[in-house]
Amino acid sequence: MRRLLLAVSLFAASTAAASAQTAFPMLMSLKPVAVQVGTTSEITVNSRYSMHLAESVLVTGGGVLGEVVPPEVKKDDKTPNVVALKIKISVAADALPGVRDLRVVTAHGVSTVAQLVVVEDPVVAEQAKNDSIAEAQAITLPATVCGCFEKAEDLDFFKFNVEAGQSLVFHVRSQRLQDRIHDLQAHSDPILTIRNAQGSTIAAADNVFHGDPFLCHRFEQAGEYLLEMRDVRYNGNQYWEYAVEIHSRPFVRSVFPLAIAAGKEQRLSAIGSQLPADPVVTFTPLNELPPGINRLRLPFVERTSNPVATFVTTLPVVMESADDNNDATKLLTAQASALSLPCVINGRIEQPGDVDCFVFEAKKDDKLSFEVKARRLQSELDSTIRIVNDRGATLVENDDLRLGKRGSQDSWIETWTTPADGKYAIEIRDMHLRGGDSFVYAIECTHARPYFNLYADTDKTNLSPGVNGVMWVKVERKNGFTGAIQLHVDGVPEGITAECGRILPDKSVDGCIVFKATPEASRAVSPIVIRGTAVHAQADGQMVELSAIAVPYQETYNPGGGRNHWPVDQHILAVIPPHDIRGIKLSATDIKLKPGESKTIDVTIERAPDFKANISLDVTMTHLQLFADTLPPGVTLDGKSKTLLSNGATQGTITLTAAKTATPIERQLVGLTANISLNFVVKTTFCAEPVFVTVDNP
Ligand SMILES: [Ca+2]
Ligand SMILES: [Ca+2]
Ligand SMILES: [Ca+2]
Ligand SMILES: [Ca+2]
Predict the structure, then answer these.
(1) Is the pLDDT of residue 13 over 60?
(2) Cα–Cα dist 651/184, whole Å
(3) Sequence-distant (≥ 6) Cβ neighbours of residue 532 within 8 angstroms
(4) Choices 1.10.540.10, 3.40.50.300, 3.40.50.2000, 2.60.120.380: CATH for 131-247
(5) pLDDT tens figures, 256-312
(6) What percent of the chain is modeled with pLDDT above 90?
(7) What is the mean pLDDT of the chain?
(8) For 26-111, which CATH superfamily applies?
(9) Where is average pLDDT lowest: 156-160, 374-378, 577-581?
């Protein structure tokens, strides 16, 4: 039955009226894409779907404020298509440089995410004509050059002067800024070339940070030089913005050691370009730093460095020793001293071919986890790890890890069960046997504990008085945790209530939260935090409390179709005026089913007077495929439901059927939704009153 429904919604997706007012803006690019600390500047936000009635700008991370510059629209145009909007961005002098999530809030809802780069140097935007060496645009350094590969075969030339012996870094951000762009699909792949005044290539870089180039070059001779920016394939796209930070300051790519303790004095060695003669700093990271990846500025003598990622841990930190540690079997047979877990190992693959081994002791049936933190902190290492015994046999190995829907080149052996009492070795090397100063790593070695991760689909909830919003929450259970999870939400603004569901102790069942705005609710906009709590019974019978904060997932459009997800910084809740759907009425919200029984909810949609486009009803998050299903196990949406409301229809039905084998369950929260397709993979979802489904004993 599910297959038939899928086919229907696919049809609906391709025929839905694009005239729907309910489309939230999908941000495509910012122009220029960078803003300088300590300044206020105007930039243009480009979008799909109108930003008409834009009200505010949200930027994550602190120190950056945005406001809308009201666009000029024709007086008689009631629905102007504002797809380029000027905004004013003010950046505090002490704002942390780096990438922020930016959204525009409009009366049609809060937008998807765009990426804004905060930089230290003046921003220079490319001129209209810079496509040849003859037309090269003169720039004064230091600067952040912002441009766009706006058309196929676009070449952008910039010319600058250097002194003899001057060194410059060129740090490009373009491809990395595009992952979270909802509707961009194809991404840029920039290449950077430095030419002398005669046009000869003297240096080039292509892929250093993902597809983005980075280059540090010392100019032996004074004079004029050229910077050429292009897509390596000569492709172009009006939304492929880039920023090139060009300066002579230190650029810290990474540090050694990577793992540090908060509140304790640390001695860190900077790794990067244009570093001070002594790149070692001694300082005490703030006590309040939360465990995990933190971006810190290193206190060099002359000035602080650019922010660099470190791994803050509360576990004992162990340093790789200078002794030979290349051969696990040798270490094990020589009875080398063993690490005791838990701990974090700090090490480095110093040269090509280097292999690092660490002996640890474990008891039979210990459950151990080894997680590498390297590439995620800008180390050059593409780690691969394995555990070996004293005969040199590989017991378990891993190259790349996956967290939710996203992967990393860092390695992770999770919940390895020790086969017998004894000593083992964890071995780490580069996947391609490369090595060097910047191949640093930390390995977090722990006893595997039960826990869970939560993912919220999507990253924004737009709701109106009379038309509720729903958020789906999915779980990843780990290390033997199988229980139910109660959902919670923090930061809900006044006038909005949240009915928080639960995730049942069954792999196939997700959870949801239904948000409702009172008729008096003001135009609230607020970041919210979705949490889950659970109780886990340990093997020894002791009960432990577990909790997790949900990662907000923004939906993205895969090249060629298909719905994908990227984590973003915040989930935003926004109360907006009602548009195409003014109300959703249900004949019943408390559904009690006996095994084998069906019940029908009559659904009445109040449409806006001129809104005739298709509306599809659902009780799951389904779009081309199933993304979330909160129905109790054994309860399904019956095929005789009338879910497609076409030609302005307002009446539908949802019939829920409990299988004969359905097990009893009390009041499971289900989001009954009315959906309007925006494009092939995205729709706007509105929710009815919370529906509770109970399965009684037969
Ligand atoms: Ca250009
Ligand atoms: Ca590239
Ligand atoms: Ca080493
Ligand atoms: Ca790897």
Answers:
(1) no
(2) 36
(3) 452, 454, 473, 475, 485, 486, 487, 488, 503, 511, 547, 548, 550
(4) 2.60.120.380
(5) 999 999 889 999 999 999 999 999 999 998 899 999 999 999 999 888 999 999 999
(6) 86
(7) 93
(8) Immunoglobulins (2.60.40.10)
(9) 577-581
**What's the whole-number mean pLDDT along residues 616-629?**
92
Closest ligand to 436 CA? 3
- Measured from the alpha carbon of residue 192, the closest ligand is 2
What is the 3-state secondary structure of 366-412? CEEEEEEECHHHCCCCCEEEEEECCCCCEEEEECCEEECCEEECCCE
Distance 278 CA to ligand 4 centre (A): 31
Ligand sitting nearest the alpha carbon of 172 = 2
362: pLDDT strictly greater than 90:
yes
Place of tokens 């990622």: 309
Q: What is the CA(383)–ligand 4 centre distance, in A?
A: 4
Q: Ligand 1 centre and the CA of 233: distance in Å?
A: 14
CA–centroid distance, residue 349 to ligand 3 (Å): 4
CA separation for the pair 554, 111 (Å, rounded): 11
Residue 253 Cα, ligand 3 centroid: separation in angstroms? 19
Q: Which ligand is nearest to the CA of 208?
A: 2
Q: What is the mean pLDDT of residues 425-450?
A: 97
CA 435–ligand 4 middle distance (angstroms):
13
Regarding predicted confidence, which is higher, 320 or 20?
320
Number of residues assigned to the chain: 698
Question: CATH 2.60.40.10 spans which residues of the chain?
Answer: 26-111
Helix (H) or strand (E) holding 4: helix 2-15
What's the 320 CA to ligand 3 centre distance in angstroms? Answer: 7
| Residue 352 CA, ligand 4 centroid: distance in Å | 16
Q: How far is the CA of 191 from the centre of ligand 2 (A)?
A: 5
Closest ligand to C-alpha of residue 191 is 2
User: Phi and psi dihedrals of 4, rounded to 5?
Assistant: -65, -45
Contact 681, 623 (CB under 8 A): yes
Question: Ligand 1: distance of its center to the CA of 307 in Å?
Answer: 29
Q: Work out the average pLDDT over 110-125.
A: 98
Tell me the CA–centroid distance for residue 187 and ligand 2, in Å. 10
* Averaged pLDDT, 238-244: 98
Peptide bond into 342 cis (omega under 30): yes
Average pLDDT over residues 81-94: 97
Fold of domain 317-451: Jelly Rolls (2.60.120)
Task: Delimit the CATH 2.60.120.380 region(s) of the chain.
Answer: 131-247, 317-451
Q: State in Å: Cα 212 to ligand 2 middle.
A: 5
Residue 271: the pLDDT is: 98
